[in-house]
Design brief:
- Keywords: Protein transport, Translocation, Transport.
- By secondary structure, this protein is of the alpha+beta class.
- It has 2 domains: 1-64 and 198-257, Rossmann fold (3-Layer(aba) Sandwich), CATH 3.40.50; 72-142 and 170-188, SecA, preprotein cross-linking domain (Pre-protein croslinking domain of SecA).
- Helix content is 36%, strand content 17%.
- A 3-stranded antiparallel beta sheet has the order 5-6-7, with helices on one face. Strands 1-9 form a two-stranded parallel ribbon.
- Helix 4 packs across helix 6 (125-139).
- The longest helix has 15 residues, at 125-139.
Length: 258
């Protein structure tokens, strides 16, 4: 596997997906032996659908993670506590920001249930974090909207496409909180071992270029972030399409009747 990738990167031109290049970079940074490093340098990149990769998905993180040593019992415990708390009394929900804030009454109630003196003590900060995640799982993340439960597994639903995102998990213990809520097997939380965004990865290259049919509208961002001007290449043949002004109808029936 490593030998195959090394051979590919030794070629004058290496073709691949942005995910492959990004994860190879992360694995190289985690390598403990020089012979396990596959990439040889960052000289010139040509990115297809460049606006999608460098603008739309620019902040998308590539993450290599591994299981942590923390026990999963904490998620079941805080899930039981979260179900006993009352909205607007013990906590407040901010749906737009998808966050939860505990009230003083809620903090006192939690301290009583856990039999601790101070929830915000340094040694209890982890518990407080998990309770917040449990409340978010119960009040902000909806079954068959944000995720589905299939074959005893919580699967995230992409909010933009509606597709199931197999293998993807919410971070910071949120996925485990949802698993506790749904009563399925709770997997150990993963800890991030290495991460980089597409934006930061492609900025490693000395020369960066790309092509797409929709870059002109993003020209300002390309110049500001990557110092890349946009050049419009005219079509090979004269455009025969007629572009008419937009017409808006009051109802769908009127639109189809027109």
């Amino acid at each position: 596997r490593i030998d195959e990738r090394k051979k590919a990167y030794q070629a004058d031109i290496t073709y691949g997906t942005n995910n492959e290049f990004g994860f190879d970079y992360l694995r190289d940074n985690m390598a403990v032996r020089l012979e396990d490093v596959v990439q040889k340098g960052y000289h010139f990149a040509i990115v297809d659908e460049v606006d999608s990769i460098l603008i739309d998905e620019a902040r998308t993180p590539l993450i290599i993670s591994g299981p942590s040593d923390e026990s999963t019992k904490i998620y079941q415990q805080v899930n039981r506590i979260a179900t006993r708390l009352q909205e607007e009394v013990d906590y407040k929900i901010y749906e737009k920001e998808k966050t939860v804030a505990l009230s003083e009454v809620g903090v006192s109630r939690i301290e009583g249930l856990l039999q601790i003196k101070n929830l915000y003590d340094e040694k209890n900060m982890n518990v407080q974090h998990h309770i917040i995640q449990a409340l978010k799982a119960q009040r902000l993340f909806k079954t068959d909207v944000d995720y589905i439960v299939k074959n005893g597994e919580v699967i995230i639903v992409d909010e933009f496409t509606g597709r199931l995102m197999f293998g993807r998990r919410y971070s910071d213990g949120l996925h485990q909180a949802i698993e506790a809520k749904e009563g399925v097997v709770i997997a150990r939380e993963n800890q991030t071992l290495a991460t980089i965004t597409f934006q930061n990865y492609f900025r490693l290259y000395k020369k960066l270029s790309g092509m797409t049919g929709t870059a002109k509208t993003e020209e300002e961002e390309f110049i500001h972030i990557y110092n890349l001007p946009v050049v419009v290449i005219p079509p090979n043949k004269k455009l025969i399409r007629n572009n008419y002004v937009d017409v808006i109808y009051r109802t769908e029936r009127e639109k189809f009747k027109a």
